[in-house]
Amino acid sequence: MADADRTWTISKRIGRFAGDRRVIVLLVVGAAFLFGRAWLAENPQHDPWAPLDLRDPPGWTTENKLVALRDDPDACRAVLERSDVTFTALEPAGEGPCRREDRTVLGDLPLSPAPPPTTCPVGIAMELWMRDVVQPAAQERYGSAVAEVEHFGSFSCRRLYGRGSGPWSEHATGNAIDIAAFVLDDGTRISVLGDWEGEDNGAAFLREARDGACGLFGTVLSPEYNEAHRDHFHFDMAGRSFGVCR
Prior knowledge:
By secondary structure, the chain is an alpha+beta fold.
């Protein structure tokens, strides 16, 4: 065989091999895509395109879906309806920077006093926090469910730290809630003020509750943040480009 013919034959084989490799790569990619779509269909909590349903466990995209609801009360309440969560939508109230367009009350949260009106995203985050963080932590640490969660309220028409000037607090629009203590079914009371310090069950439970909130709320502040939060957790759903968890 002439050198020219041999070179042409080798080139042809190389070209055929390269073509076969492209086909194999396309088949592998296609199979991976189909597998991924099937897996997401079975795990909608991880699917960025699946509607949020609170009955699903938290997933990779849950926090992003919560963030997307911050400025859309109607879409947020549609999530509650889809998830069979009892709620009441109240009429807007207030004026100026303390105008509250979104006043939603979730009926099944064991808050004491009774659940206050908050923005719908705060209510959803509270629902998930109680179900997926607080109650499991209480069962693991104490073998008892949480009967009541004591709070300091949601709405307060004021600026940050009650100053006369500066940014308005998320409490000014009910987009926040302050949590003070937990009371178990057996009567055990665990308070942020009294039990945060130390290494006992109370301190461990409170840290689990704080850490678990960080994947649900836009802002989570605890006694580790500053003296003003020595007696409560502050949770809010402020629209920030990154969350605050301290």
